[in-house]
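Collaborator request, handled under Task 6.
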Amino acid sequence: MRRGRVVDQQWLRAEISHTNTQMVILRAKDKTLKANRRYFMHTPVFNMTRYFEKFLTFVLSYYFFFFFLWRFKSQIIQKLVEACFETDMQQLEVEMQKKRETSPKKKGNTQQQKNGKKKKKKQQINRIKFKSKDKHSWNFFDF
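Structure tokens returned to the collaborator:
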């Protein structure tokens, strides 16, 4: 009877120690997990995994934005030019129409050319005129 009690106590002690060791193991695992988390938090790999989604959305949004600009750049530029210079272009068309109506028309062959007497002209070097003398003619460089 007494021996049975001792066995029971030994079994109980063994069971308690087993559960204790299991608890110790679980606590140790938990501590290592926390320690690993604390350690990996400062590594670039962890930061990459942590901020990868934000980085990816940032890169993709800019990629699509610039792709959109590149794809539709001609339409966008055309719309901007139309919006900015619509009134200027209409005014320019009116001025050009007036200029066409008022300018003298070129004659055909002159009498001198018919007679074969052509005046010799001095050779002129054609230079780019940045500012034209005519007020109505529009030049890119007239600002």
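The cover message to the collaborator said: "The mean pLDDT is 69. Helices lie at 2-40, 44-71, 73-102, 111-115. Please let us know whether this matches your experimental observations."
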